[in-house]
Every structure is written in structure tokens, then in C-alpha cells.
Hints:
Family (chain B): Belongs to the class-I fumarase family.
Number of strands of chain B: 8
Protein name (chain B): Fumarate hydratase
Radius of gyration of chain B: 19 Å
Largest sheet of chain A: 5 strands, mixed, barrel
Order of helices and strands of chain B: HHHEHEEHEHEHHEEE
Number of helices of chain A: 6
Largest sheet of chain B: 4 strands, mixed
Number of domains of chain A: 1
CATH superfamily of chain A: Fe-S hydro-lyase, tartrate dehydratase beta-type, catalytic domain
Shape of chain A: globular
Pfam family, one (chain B): Fumerase
GO molecular function, one term (chain B): lyase activity
Domain Fe-S hydro-lyase tartrate dehydratase alpha-type catalytic (chain B): 13-273
Distance between the termini of chain B: 10 Å
Number of strands of chain A: 9
Strand content of chain A: 25-35%
Oligomer: heterodimer
Amino acid sequence: MEYHLKTPLKKEDVEQLDAGDIVYLTGTVLTARDEAHARILEMHEEGLELPFELEGAAIYHCGPLMQQIERKWSVVAAGPTTSDRMSKMTPDLLERFNVRALVGKGGMNNVAESLKGKCIYLAYTGGCAALAAGSIKNVPQVHWLDLGMPEAVWELEVVEFGPLIVGIDTKGNDLFTSIKERARESFLNK
Amino acid sequence: MTGKITYDAVVKATIDTIKEAETLLPDDVIKALETAKKNESSDVARSQIEAILKNIEIAGNNSIPLCQDTGILIFYVDIGRDLHIDFDLKGAILEATRIATQQVPLRPNAVDPLTRNNSSDNTGEGLPDIKYDFVEGEQLKITVAPKGAGSENMSVLKMMNPTELKSIDNFIVETVLNAGGRPCPPVIVGVGIGGSFDKAARLAKSSLLRTVDDMNDEEKAVLSRINSLGIGPMGLGGDTTALAVYLNTSHCHTASLPVAINIQCWANRHASVTLGGDE
Lengths: 190, 279
């Protein structure tokens, strides 16, 4: 099935999706990698307010290549980064904030349980940074640029961003894990 | 010797070569991806390869980097032994890296390993990584291979026991299996066997400069075992997990068997320029 969704995402938007479905996103996505995840959790711990909204948010595991011309930022290239680096921090993040979609590549180990009933994992084709840049129409804001260009939180306005493959759905089905399990079986039987 | 090589000429040629490597993929890789697209039996897998091919076209047409991870830069410099270089060659490559970061542009990826402070120009202690070699002739050849972290992070080195020769293939296949979709498959697998701890890694990485059609039967056999795993493009299942496997060897100590596996994503980026000599 193919779905066209708008951010902020509601619980019902993501609950209808099954692993293997195709999704196109329109609206705002927030980039966040290792350092941004750590800072979000630290600030929440200290009771501080975040400078961006995570309610219904789509978080894009991406460290974009940006260019600033006359103080205005534009996207040069913005493909997904390896999501599994964020796997350890994700359950904590989802417990504290109603993030509805994670977009990245390569899958995430041991997060299916914490996604159950509330959030989906969407896979974008790794390395397709020039293709992705085409669906990013505007860069309204950047936060935490002190972390460096790749690690900062970029607000990206996207139109029909995709195709994104539902890698982990809200029922606990994990496409990546089942493919890897099958691969391991075939490896051990050789 | 005609056409004396200058500092400025090296800077300019290096910037152009970095740009070429970041925005255009070598033909052999594109051909291998096109063949893989034809042979894929899974729809999802085919959609991933189609996206990759479209991405390559957009990047090439617009002269923008193929991937936002423009990598750290690895340079291979072959210096003709009849060549006289009376300037700071390393300085020229560093300056080209700084200028290319602005001009191409490249994402600033170089950070201090402990403080994680970003140098913002892709240089720093030991970066870019430059490997020098002396060769016959009077030319200077500079090759640049940008290496991204997604695939680099899935690479491993193991000091194997000399009697474990037969399990090298298993080690390679299992490494690709463990990596799954993380290194952006279809991957290219560079393997260094022998040498020493560090040389095995260098062999593995430099083997990535070979072309896809240059595989021998042993390499093809390992490739076919990897592809039978079914991990597929991006780990979403399919027939194409790897495009090539290269096994490069070197003599080693009788008590040693170092094996290094350097994984490369589908974007096996590299480009070369030759300066000087009779052209």
C-alpha cells in the first residue's frame, strides 16, 4: 500500500501502516543524529524546554550538507544516516515525547518494542542525498549549530518526501530483523 | 621533462579531482548497478536501485555530491622518481581540501576524536589521510577516494590464526551479514589478507580502487555466497547485497594471518589526475 502523510503526524496516521508499505511525507521533518539525541535527553532531564516541537514530529536521521548564501541556508545534499547509532537513545526519547516517525536507513536494533502503538520507522534509500534534496523546499530554522553542521537540528520543509519503506510498524513487525534472521539461517546451513 | 609541476597546479588539479570524485561515480559501478536492477526479483530491491541510479543522474547533472556524507578524504599519491618537487606537496593537498570544502561543497566531517570539536574544513591532525608511493617515470598521480562513515564503521580487522585459512571466506560473509543494511548495500567488499596489522587494512582499502569487472574466480565465489544471503539493497531484502569482492594479499609473518575487511557502500567514489611528464 502507498500512503501520503502530512506532519505533524497523529497516532492514527501511523497505526494504519504495515511493514513493507510505501510512504511519502509532506510538512516539516527535524534532523537529529547522535549529539542532538543526547542533548534532547539531557535538556529534558534538567527540565528545560526544547527550541523545537516534538509532538507528532518526524525525526530524520540525517546530517545534511548545507550551504549558507547571504545568511539564508539551503540544502545541497541530505540523505539518511545509519539509524542504528541512535538505537540506544530511541526508547528513552519515545517515552518522553510523542514522536510519530523516525526516518533513516539500515534499520534499528531492539527498538520495535518501544515503537509499538505509537511510532513507525521509515527507510529512505541510503546515499540518495541529491535525490532527497529535491523534495526539500525550504529550511525555516536551524538549532544547535554549535554541534557542527551534521549534528545540528535542521527544520526541513518537505513535499512528497519518499518513497519511504515502512521498516518497522507499530505492531512490532521489523522488516530488517526478519530479513537478517533468514540470512543468518541460510549462512549457518551452508 | 616538460611542463614543470607547481604548487598552484597541484592545488587546482586536486580541487577538480575532489569535485569529480564527489559528484560522479566510476562507470564500472554504474554498469554493475544497472545489471543488478535488471536481475533483481524483488520489487522493493528494484525500487532502491532505481532511486540510487536516479540519484547518480541528478548529482552528475547538477554537479552536487552524490551523498551528504562526503566522507573523509583518502589520497593516494604516486610520485615519479625522476620528478623534482621543490614545494610543499602535502601543503598543496591540504589547501585544496580546505578550498574544496567551500567550493564543491563538502560537509565538514573532520573532528578531534576526543573533544569531537569540528575543524570545519575537513583537515586536522592526520587528515586528510595521504599515502605516498614512488613509481617509475616523471609524473605525479593524485587519486582521491572519499570514505563515508556508514560503511567504514562496519569494517573489521581480525588477527587470525595461520591454521584458520579455510575460515577466511566465512569471516567475510559473516561480516557482511552482521552489517546488514547499515553500510548502504549493495556494497563493495575490500579484503586485505596478510601483510601486518596495519598493512592488511591498507590492502583492504586500496583494493576498492579496482574495477568491478576485474574479479577472479575466487572473488566471484565469495560474492555469490554474500548475495545468496538475501540481505539486498539497503537491507530490505533482495538478490543484490554486494556488487564486488576484492581479495588482495601480501606476504606476512609465518605466525600471523591478519585479515582486514573494508566495506564500501554502493557509492564507490574515487577519481585521479596525472600531472607533468610528456603529455
